[in-house]
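Practice problem 4.
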């Protein structure tokens, strides 16, 4: 679809993901944000609530009315807590209106969603119309894009070059993932208290994180014999960033040089994936504020384990940035449009 100016509506504007969409879309040359939506009746300009937006946006959030949104916008982003879009997106799906959903509501099949999110899934006829879309491997033919989760993005990009060639030893895929606090969204919980996060390091949801089935489902599409992964998540005392350490074994022994080449070949035409030079491992800071995923490899010939490090900004590549990359694909724009950003280093 080719359109000069894309009119955008955002539902869930007061959350971290919604605010990040606003930040990134401000510099998108083909986008006009026409409306922003929250749940409160209390109307005040977004820049009053969030002064960092002063003089950038003159918009006031209003409750979402699907009919009104479909009349004034070309695409709607859902940046809502899980359990919202599965109900609220129905009129958009039935009208074949373009939706990009940052939440987990349309990423899994009904029974996996019920098991992992512990919520009633969207009806099957709606789920059937959604397409999971890892933007760097975009192959979409749907009006409804289920944008991947943050941990899932970093993990899948770490494993894609090997899984796509069927090289992974399916019983030896170990993922140790860590996230900054913004990954948890704005709601306050005991585990998000300053005292519990600052100068601390905590593993959580060990073996039952909701991104496990999302990762497995995509890996399986690339390498069908993968049925499970060992996956743990921990909280870093930082605002943004995900650091994934993947420890994998391969079916056949490959040299460090060949492994490096597999990654470089897979990602040579992917502008947002930067493969580090051999044995150079990326750090979180080098991607903060950007849509990059930086990936580095190191192979241990004694243990035969390959360690893959993948770093992203959870708010950008793991959420709003990837959602905009998916929007660019939908509207036949260059995927980098509005997303050419250099990390905020110091
Ligand atoms: N933070 C991250 O790094 C990532 C987040 N995600 C996913 O993206 C989504 C948004 O995340 P994030 O911004 O961090 O979450 P937040 O908790 O910060 O924000 C959630 C948003 O959902 C809105 N919302 C809640 N209930 C309703 C409702 N009934 N109707 C309409 N809007 C509602 C809230 O609006 P209000 O305040 O007005 O009630 C708020 O704007 C989540 O599903 C999250 O899992 C995905 C990848 C990464
Ligand atoms: C640090 C932190 O708490 N991160 C969240 C990120 C997951 C997320 O965004 O969840 P969905 O996209 O699956 O809804 C978590 O681990 O649950």
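Answer key:
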């Amino acid at each position: 679809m080719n359109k000069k100016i894309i009119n955008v509506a955002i539902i869930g504007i007061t959350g971290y993901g919604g605010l990040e969409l606003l930040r990134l879309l401000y510099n998108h040359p083909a986008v006009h944000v026409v409306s922003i939506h929250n749940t409160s009746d209390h109307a005040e300009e977004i820049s009053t609530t969030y002064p960092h937006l002063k003089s950038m946006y003159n918009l006031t959030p209003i409750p979402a009315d699907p009919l009104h949104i479909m009349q004034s916008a070309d695409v709607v982003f859902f940046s809502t807590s899980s359990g919202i879009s599965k109900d609220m997106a129905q009129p958009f799906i039935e009208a074949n209106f373009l939706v990009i959903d940052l939440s987990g509501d349309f990423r899994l099949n009904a029974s996996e969603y019920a098991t992992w999110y512990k919520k009633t899934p969207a009806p099957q006829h709606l789920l059937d119309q959604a397409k999971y879309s890892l933007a760097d491997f975009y192959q979409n033919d749907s009006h409804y894009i289920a944008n991947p989760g943050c941990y899932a993005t970093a993990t899948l990009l770490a494993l894609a070059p090997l899984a796509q060639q069927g090289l992974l030893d399916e019983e030896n895929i170990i993922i140790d993932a860590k996230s900054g606090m913004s990954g948890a969204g704005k709601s306050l919980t005991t585990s998000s208290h300053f005292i519990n996060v600052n100068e601390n390091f905590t593993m959580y949801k060990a073996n039952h994180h909701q991104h496990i089935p999302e990762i497995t489902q995509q890996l399986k599409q690339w390498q069908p014999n993968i049925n499970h992964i060992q996956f743990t998540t921990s909280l870093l005392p930082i605002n943004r960033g995900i650091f994934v350490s993947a420890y994998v074994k391969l079916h056949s022994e490959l040299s460090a040089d060949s492994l490096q080449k597999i990654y470089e070949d897979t990602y040579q035409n992917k502008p947002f994936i930067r493969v580090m030079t051999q044995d150079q491992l990326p750090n979180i800071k080098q991607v903060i504020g950007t849509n990059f995923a930086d990936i580095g490899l190191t192979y241990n010939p004694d243990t035969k384990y390959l360690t893959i490090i993948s770093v992203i900004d959870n708010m950008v590549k793991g959420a709003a940035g990837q959602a905009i990359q998916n929007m660019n694909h939908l509207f036949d724009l260059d995927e980098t449009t509005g997303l050419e950003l250099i990390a905020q280093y110091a």
